[in-house]
From TrEMBL:
Pfam families: HTH_26
Protein name in the entry: Putative transcriptional regulator
PANTHER family: DNA-BINDING PROTEIN (PTHR37301:SF1), DNA-BINDING PROTEIN-RELATED (PTHR37301)
GO MF assignments: DNA binding
InterPro entries xrefs: Cro/C1-type_HTH, Lambda_DNA-bd_dom_sf
Positions of the HTH cro/C1-type domain: 7-62
Lineage: Bacteria, Bacillati, Bacillota, Clostridia, Eubacteriales
Top-level taxonomic group: Bacteria
CDD domains, per database record: HTH_XRE
Amino acid sequence: MAIIVNLDVMMAKRKISSNELAEKVGITAANLSILKTGKAKAVRFSTLDKICEVLECQPGDILEFRK
């Protein structure tokens, strides 16, 4: 997959745990894990919006395109 998910990097920078982020975003810890590992096939804009709000970042800080 050419889309790299750097969610774990942003979480470390903000010093927030997976469980805390999942709770604040309103998704399950299991779904957050799927997203973090890059196994997700899609992400809702509303979820991405909330993640960015909680982590105080831009979508490009989380998602990266590599050939």
